[in-house]
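TASK: fixed-backbone design
INPUT:
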């Protein structure tokens, strides 16, 4: 049996993807939290990109969240990817797109001026609509959660943490996404994938960044 050790930063949405798969597949693992503002030397030696997540599998090192998700999925069948190669390739494309959405969300929560904030809100919503158009429901590809849902779940988790404080809903007018977000929020492996203090820490982190949206947090 292999030993898994995940190197994490508590607030990182990309690490959260790994934790969701580990929980969903009930894989035993250790987790080590580091401070990205003060990266330990041992971590810099392990991680070629200096980014989390890093997964140590016995003495081997894996990096990049999409690769880690796929590895964990592959060694614990049944797979959370479609079996059909075309459907699998399509899912991988949307996993890549969900990384793009996470990047937009990060910018949206860090932007400083009202003009930039409004433009980023529109860009984010336009891209969310593209994702929404692909959802079969209740999950992306139908009846069961797949890796593409795992990959995007951290995005909806963060929208949900911010929602009670925001004067408008980023998912407003997008009923498919509201239903999808509710599905994500009701899934135990996803809710258990962050520490209980993380939603509050996330709000504090955005607030401290001096972002435009800090005034609501
Ligand atoms: N493409 C990477 C992105 C990971 C990433 O951006 N991680 C952030 C934290 S959420 C990080 O480690 N940042 C540290 C840095 O860039 O120095 C993945 O999917 O694993």
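OUTPUT:
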């Amino acid at each position: 049996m292999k030993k898994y050790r995940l190197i994490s930063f508590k607030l990182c949405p990309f690490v959260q993807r790994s934790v969701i798969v580990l929980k969903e597949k009930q894989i035993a693992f250790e987790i080590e939290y580091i401070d990205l503002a003060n990266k330990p030397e041992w971590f810099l030696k392990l991680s070629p990109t200096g980014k989390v997540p890093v997964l140590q599998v016995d003495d081997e090192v894996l990096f990049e969240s999409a690769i880690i998700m796929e590895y964990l999925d592959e060694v614990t069948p049944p797979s959370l990817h479609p079996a059909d190669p075309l459907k699998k390739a399509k899912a991988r494309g949307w996993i890549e797109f969900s990384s793009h959405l996470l990047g937009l969300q990060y910018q949206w929560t860090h932007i400083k001026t009202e003009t930039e904030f409004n433009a980023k809100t529109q860009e984010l919503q336009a891209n969310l609509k593209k994702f929404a158009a692909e959802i079969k429901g209740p999950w992306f590809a139908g009846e069961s959660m797949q890796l593409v849902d795992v990959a995007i779940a951290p995005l909806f988790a963060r929208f949900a943490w911010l929602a009670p404080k925001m004067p408008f809903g980023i998912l407003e007018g997008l009923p498919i996404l509201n239903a999808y977000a509710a599905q994500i929020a009701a899934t135990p492996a996803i809710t258990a994938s962050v520490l209980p203090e993380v939603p509050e820490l996330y709000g504090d982190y955005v607030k401290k960044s001096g972002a435009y949206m800090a005034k609501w947090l």
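COMMENT: The pocket of glutathione is lined by residues 9, 12, 14, 36, 50-53, 64-66, 99 (CB under 6 Å).
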